[in-house]
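May I ask you to review the protein record following this short note?
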Amino acid sequence: MFIPSRSFLALATLSLLGLSLAGGNYKLVDTYDASNFFSSFNFFEDKDPTNGFVQYKPLQAAAASGLIGIDSSTPGGLVYLGVDHKSKDPAGRASVRVSSQKAYTHGLFITDLEHMPGASSSSGSKGGECGAWPAHWLLAEGVTWPQNGEIDILEGANDQVNNQITLHTAPGCSIDNQGFSGQLVTPNCDVNAPGQDKNAGCAIRHPMADSMSFGAGFNAVNGGVYATEWTSQGISVWHFPRADIPADISLGNPDPTSWGLPVAKFAGDGCNIDQHFQNHNIIFDTTFCGDWAGNAWETSLGCKAKAMTCQEYVQNNPEKFIESYWAIRSVKVYEVQGGKTEMRRDIIRQGWKELE
């Protein structure tokens, strides 16, 4: 006699309701690329909140000094966000930090990058450049940090080789160590969590064998895609090198259910995602030294051998930062059509409870 399992019954229930477990339920709501990027992002002009050795320039000054631009030699164009790689300004290296004018709660963020800030050819690093701290992230602006959370999608400091994906929150958010291929660094997202470095948050790093996730290694394969799915149930991040970008992404019909394990997944009963993450802007920046690259200088032995301090190295070696630029093909934001993804998951949970 065939006795259906709980999972079989749950699937049958979904079938009777006319719902599918397949993905592809996202619709495109915003595209940022060479055609509209600089009219859709604001330029940060204040002192770096992370205490970096940097001068963030406004739009007009950045354009006049060649820190930003559009590369039209590539089909569709590339958005260029660079840094000063010529001067030895004692006030800090010139750079830009930009954030989207529109904020989001939930969505699928597909970031296609041709190039990210990485090591110069003469540095010997396979990842980042000593002193540099580039980041692509989501942040709730206009509130006291870490209120409403922070999602660091692509980030690293000094000669780091592998990308680190991190969440930062107020107390009351920790994640499960399961459902992802990366390496858990810290599980508690609270920036003041006991037993973790201050501001560490919950972090997952790409496997050491993945040499294409960050810096020079990422650039050597013409970059790729970072895909971030943010729902009420969790926040997941996938990385696809240029040659491995799924066809559904290229065709504009992304289906996260077909991508396999994410490199990072932040979920579990220890964190109410909707309580801790709301109204995020999309950000790109490159800072120098500061709270991460500067504080880690003493333990970054390859960097420490080049100069006594991070600031000394960054100030006196401008040519080392010629590769410290972002070349952005596009950032596309998708949202669930009619809330069906959340409905599916709620029904699955309800079905399990009813069958217990």
